[in-house]
């Protein structure tokens, strides 16, 4: 039994007449009659009662009509779904992001725009540090990711810098460099001032990144920073700053986190430092929603 036989049957059942059904289907009446008889032989039941004025469904025919219409509707619905899949309007998109990337207004704005243009795509969002997101992408568990500075560049992954932004020094509000003692609390701090304080770094040991660049800049200027803590995530970093553990350097877009406990200032010697927003995707990606999302990110980044 094939779908053509079901469609032929449905047309005859609807019109109650072999000739009218043939006209509706755009075929000759004799081949249609043969198809219906072949279907009845295959099923081993009579689907129609023949009479001079047309065809009437038997009880078995009415039961078969219900099943046939359901199957035809399911097939049509599947075809429509596959058309949407072929256009990238349906399917699944797994996106990873770091907390510092999510803090930039670019990401929620882009996600909102994508949801509006692709409402049929199911989004799966995962937050993690840059190293683990990169590993997940390389293993095929994610379609794309948004992070700051890449900590590794495995084969098969593509890294694109979408945006760059300056960095800020985050310090406890009760820190001596943040106190309102006649000095402008928003005045830039020097790298030398920063290195006199305990620093909190977000990094994977031995991996490059914003903080590796910071340490390299300090070394180039003959400065020796005092590292008091190393953590895996930016939010943990800022939680420790808020708790008074030390100072840190963060992307400017995170300058509003914990305003009751943290003050932010520019870093005077930070010209060589910046915080990129990086799109990581898989080479040869064939997931259309992922390709459309990457295109949307590039277009919105170019418009910034």
Structure report:
The protein has 304 residues and is an alpha/beta fold. Helices cover 43% and strands 23% of the residues. The protein has 11 helices and 12 strands. The protein has a 5-stranded mixed sheet with strand order 4-3-5-12-6, with helices on both faces. A 3-stranded antiparallel sheet has the order 10-7-11, covered by helices on one side. It has a two-stranded antiparallel ribbon with strand order 1-2. It is rod-shaped and about 105 Å long. The relative contact order is 0.14. The mean pLDDT is 88.
Gist of the model:
It is built from 11 helices and 12 strands.
The CATH architecture of the largest domain can be given as 3-Layer(aba) Sandwich
Number-wise, the strands total 12
Low-confidence stretches: none
CA-based gyration radius? 32 Å
What percent of residues adopt helix (DSSP H or I)? 40-55%
Number of domains: 3
Output the helix-strand order: HHHEEHEHHEHEEEHEHEHEEEH
Q: Tell me about the biggest sheet?
A: 5 strands, mixed
Distance between the termini: 58 Å
Number of contiguous helices: 11
Strand order of the largest sheet: 4-3-5-12-6
- Output the CATH class name of the largest domain: Alpha Beta
The mean pLDDT is 88
- For this structure, the CATH topology of the largest domain is D-Maltodextrin-Binding Protein, domain 2
**Estimated share of beta-strand residues:** 15-25%
CATH superfamily of the largest domain: Periplasmic binding protein-like II
Query: What spatial form do the alpha-carbon principal axes imply?
Result: rod-shaped
Q: What structural class is derived from the secondary structure elements?
A: alpha/beta
């Amino acid at each position: 039994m094939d779908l053509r036989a079901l469609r032929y049957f449905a047309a005859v059942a609807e019109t109650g007449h072999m000739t009218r059904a043939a006209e509706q289907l755009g075929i000759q009446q004799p081949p249609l009659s043969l198809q219906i008889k072949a279907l009845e032989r295959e099923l081993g039941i009579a689907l129609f009662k023949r009479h001079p004025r047309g065809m009437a469904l038997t009880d078995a025919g009415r039961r078969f009509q219900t099943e046939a219409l359901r199957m035809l509707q399911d097939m049509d619905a599947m075809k429509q779904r596959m058309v949407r899949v072929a256009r990238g309007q349906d399917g699944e998109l797994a996106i990873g992001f770091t907390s510092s990337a999510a803090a930039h207004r670019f990401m929620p704005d882009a996600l909102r725009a994508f949801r509006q243009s692709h409402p049929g795509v199911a989004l799966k969002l995962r937050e993690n540090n840059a190293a683990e997101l990169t590993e997940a992408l390389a293993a095929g568990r994610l379609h794309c990711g948004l992070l700051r500075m890449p900590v590794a560049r495995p084969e098969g992954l593509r890294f694109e810098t979408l945006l760059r932004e300056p960095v800020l020094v985050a310090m406890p509000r009760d820190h001596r460099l943040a106190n309102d003692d006649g000095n402008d609390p928003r005045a830039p701090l020097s790298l030398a001032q920063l290195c006199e304080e305990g620093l909190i770094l977000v990094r994977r040991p031995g991996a490059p990144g914003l903080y590796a660049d910071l340490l390299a800049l300090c070394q180039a200027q003959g400065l020796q920073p005092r590292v008091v803590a190393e953590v895996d995530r930016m939010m943990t970093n800022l939680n420790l700053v808020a708790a008074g553990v030390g100072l840190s350097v963060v992307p400017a877009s995170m300058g509003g986190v914990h305003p009751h406990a943290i003050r932010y200032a520019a870093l005077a010697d930070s010209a060589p430092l910046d915080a990129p927003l990086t799109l990581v995707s898989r080479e040869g990606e064939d997931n259309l929603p992922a390709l459309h999302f990457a295109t949307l990110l590039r277009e919105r980044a170019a418009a910034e």
